[in-house]
Amino acid sequence: MTATTTAPTTATPVRATGRPPARLRDWATRAPLLPALIFMIAVTQLPFVATLVISFFDWNALYPKARHFTGVDNYRQVLTDADLRHSVWTTVLLTVAVVLVSLVLGLALALLLDRRFRGRGVVRTLLIAPFLVVPVAAALLWKHVLYNPEYGLLNGLLHYVGGPQPDWISNTPLLAVEAALVWQWTPFMMLILLAGLQSRDQQQIEAARVDGASDWQIFRHLTLPHLRRYLELGALLGSIYIVQNFDAVFTITSGGLGTANLPYTVYQSFYQAHENGLASAAGVLVVIGSIIIATFALRVVSSLFREEVSRA
Amino acid sequence: MSAAVVPARRRKGVGLGLVAWLAGILFFLPIAWMALTSFHSEQDAATNPPSFTAALTLDGYREFFGTGGGASPWPALLNSTVASVVSTLCVLLLALPAAYALSIRPVKKWTDVLFFFLSTKMLPVVAGLLPIYLFAKNAGMLDNIWLLVILYTAMNLPIAVWMMQSFLAEVPVAVIEAARVDGARLPTVLGRIVAPIALPGIAATALICFIFSWNELLFARVLTGVVAETAPVFLTGFITSQGLFLAKVCAASLVISLPVLAAGFAAQDKLVQGLSLGAVK
User: Fold this and answer.
1) Which of B2, B126, B194 to mutate to test the interface with A (most CBs of A within 10 A)?
2) Where are the beta strands (DSSP E) in chain A?
3) What is the pLDDT of residues A252-306, one digit of tens each?
């Protein structure tokens, strides 16, 4: 990192002349920020407040006249409804499985790519590609081209070795969705962890090697502690994106076979069942879940961020 | 290092290089297979065991582009282009001044503002979906591509502010101050000093915003219909099987993913920084 000279201490801008009054100057500094700030508040914060309000109403869009305030009734219904409770569980299972597996695979791939070998750039490009397929297209690819029980590639390859010909999506629906998501998210984890590996202190590793440390010892005692925060960051950012996943569930199983996660359930309860109040309550629950993850995520980001600033 | 250790280490290195190649090929295999299938006839695409050496044809692409009688994807592709490109331009227009006020000439408590932007990114899309839908319905903006432009701008603005803040922060303040002392005005400073250093980063930011907008499904699915349908919504038409249609699906998926693949490879070096919201460089 060259000159990252934006440490809070240099926050006082260049005072060329002392002519304009201090307050005016403050506003002149703030002005470039305001359009973006106001736009963000209007488009992201206001709708959420509206969701919060609607979540306290019994409101079916098909019977708009019957709309009335019900307090926490929607929440009681959401939390006691077997389908909705199941979708909370599905969301947790989906997120944890995809994040953990893609993190482990991503770490293995990052370690492989951190070494020098012929064609490293090409392999890196090949590995990033799955992340750069439009999510719906990727889900269609897995659903029709790989999983299809009659002529999908997976069963085609199994055919060669005389293996069974399972109907992947019907037999293991959640696993089918998870595998497709792991394929897309492993490159993401790999990129973050690779950046972590490349920011290691090479001199320290060289010194350890000279002192006779084995590869495993170096990995266990130097690399892994250094990677800890990158692993945390990957896990948290991955969780934030995958908790919200809609595309894969919608495309591969259409929320059927017990794979409906919370975003899909919210979509369904207002788009198909027109239950505005219930959908809002479920939406608020998704937000509470995200805030819990986000609190940790923000802490990790801010610790990495502070390190960047102080390194300047 | 003694002479005996070197060959052993090298042999291990070659072995691990092969493992890396194998992993890369394995991960790329579905995409390669998708590309190959898109050039097969529908009959050859639906065989078990798979036919690797079947004759190549452009029928899948012809079918996809609607000359075979199906719905044309051109309106959807055009909508996606408008939504992604215009929203990316809006993002740049809003994020550049904001990033300037957060790095080169920082406001007080600039880190708090930065983290406010980040926190909005952690609010799930579904949380605001219903009110936005109701608003659009009452304002007569359902099935209107400009609504998506606004939403995609909001979706990408936090990422863009974070990325650009970190790129602009790389511009040395001393150089800017020196130019100011020499009497350079703000436009000159921005054009001559800031832009050359920050431009590659700004370009990468734009590409990443483009990717996210192009990929988005949930908003587009709920808020658009026949007129403003985007490319991912067009793809959802392939969710239910329609007889022999693998070559067509593969052609469609590939064509619609091409802009993202191109933008992603172009932004490869800065991709991590964008995806990790600027936390990793």
Assistant:
1) B126
2) 57-58, 68-69
3) 988 888 888 888 988 888 787 788 888 888 888 878 877 887 787 777 777 777 7
Note whether B279 contacts A141, CB cutoff 8 Å.
Answer: no
CB contact under 8 A, B27 and A186: yes
In a domain, B120, yes or no: yes
Shared-domain flag, residues B251 and B173: yes
Residue B31 one-letter amino acid: I
Is the distance from CB of A113 to CB of B20 less than 8 angstroms?
yes
Closest approach of A218 to chain B, Cα-based (Å)? 15
Q: Are residues B133 and B247 in the same domain?
A: yes
Name the residue facing B101 among A29, A44, A48 (closest C-beta). Answer: A29
Contact B170 A2 (CB under 8 A): yes
pLDDT in tens, A95-128: 999 999 999 999 999 999 988 888 889 999 999 9
Q: CA A165 to CA B29: how far, in whole Å? A: 20
DSSP A13: P
For chain A, the structural domain boundaries read 26-55, 72-310
Smallest Cα distance from A3 to chain B, Å: 6
Place of tokens 């919210």: A266
Do the Cβ atoms of B131 and A130 come within 8 Å?
A: no
- Measure the CA–CA gap between A175 and B87, rounded to whole angstroms: 35
Nearest chain A residue (CA) to B273:
A192
Model confidence, pTM: 0.86
CATH class as words, domain A72-310: mainly alpha
Same domain, B26 and B81: no
Tell me the nearest-neighbour CA distance from B169 into chain A, angstroms.
6
Q: Do B97 and A36 touch (CB under 8 A)?
A: yes
Instruction: Please answer yes or no on whether B25 and A35 come within 8 Å at the CB atom.
Output: no
Range of the domain at B18: 14-56
> How many other C-beta atoms are found inside a 10 Å radius of the C-beta of residue B250?
27
Find, among B44, B22, B59, the residue nearest to A156 by Cα.
Answer: B44
Tell me, what amino acid is at A111?
Answer: L
